[in-house]
Amino acid sequence: MNLVLLGPPGAGKGTQAALLSQRLGIPHVASGDLFREAMKKGTGWGKEAQSYIDLGVLVPDEVTNAMIEERLKEPDCAKGVILDGFPRTIEQARALEGILAERGEKIDRVLVIQVSEDTLIERLSGRRTCRRCQANYHLLFNPPQKEGVCDRCGGDLYQRSDDKEETVRRRFRVYTEETAPLIDYYRRQGLLTEIDGERGIEGVQGKILSALSLSP
After folding, report:
1. Pairing with 108, which of 119, 143, 145, 185 sits 20 to 30 Å away (CA)?
2. Which of 36, 71, 123, 171 is the catalytic position?
3. Is 150 inside any structural domain?
4. Catalytic residue from among 23, 94, 160, 164
């Protein structure tokens, strides 16, 4: 099964994709994770991606498409994949269709998680990440036991540049202007299901399972 999760940054795509990955036994492939790994390693793609992500704008399609295509060739994607953060443009969607067509496959369902801008700011501006082990925390919903210190490894916690309020607002505008047209694109193909992302994690998961005709 090949699934695409759409929604603005902070809508909960990563959380829901991870739960689906466990349920379906297929990998969760997040473009953001691919970018961060490349940036951490200092690759050419990583350095290029960093300059765009820091500004809160989309990484160019040619870079993103190439990284996704390379990832989908790995053996764990043979039975399907849950894509999170890709595609973000209609051009990327067409590229994905081409990549899958070469394998004799197609997209089975597109789920768009809808969340308001105010909710996104609350969720993202409170996020903190460990510099050492990359564990994630939230100042309101999942705070560390000691302020600024990772519970797991004792590393320093920091706020990612793309989680600052001004960047979150810019990212939301970018999503609305450039990514939202994908909703109509996939709706016309009969692939789209809209999910209320304002619910709790379990509530959103229940709606997703229902959309995929899976039992809770």
Report:
1. 119
2. 171
3. no
4. 160
Domain count, the chain: 1
Whether the CB-CB separation of 181 and 91 falls below 8 Å is answered with: no
Catalytic site residue 13? yes
Alpha carbon distance 131, 160 (integer Å): 10
- Which strands form 2-6's sheet, in the order they lie side by side? 28-30, 81-84, 2-6, 109-114, 192-196
Q: What is the pLDDT of residues 109-131, one digit of tens each?
A: 999 999 999 999 988 899 999 99
Set 36, 88, 123, 128: catalytic member: 88
CATH code: domain of residue 191: 3.40.50.300
Q: Which of 36, 71, 127, 207 is catalytic?
A: 127
Establish if 124 belongs to a structural domain. Answer: no
Its domain, for residue 47, covers 2-116+165-211
Task: Tell me if 154 is assigned to some domain.
Answer: no
Active site includes 160?
A: yes
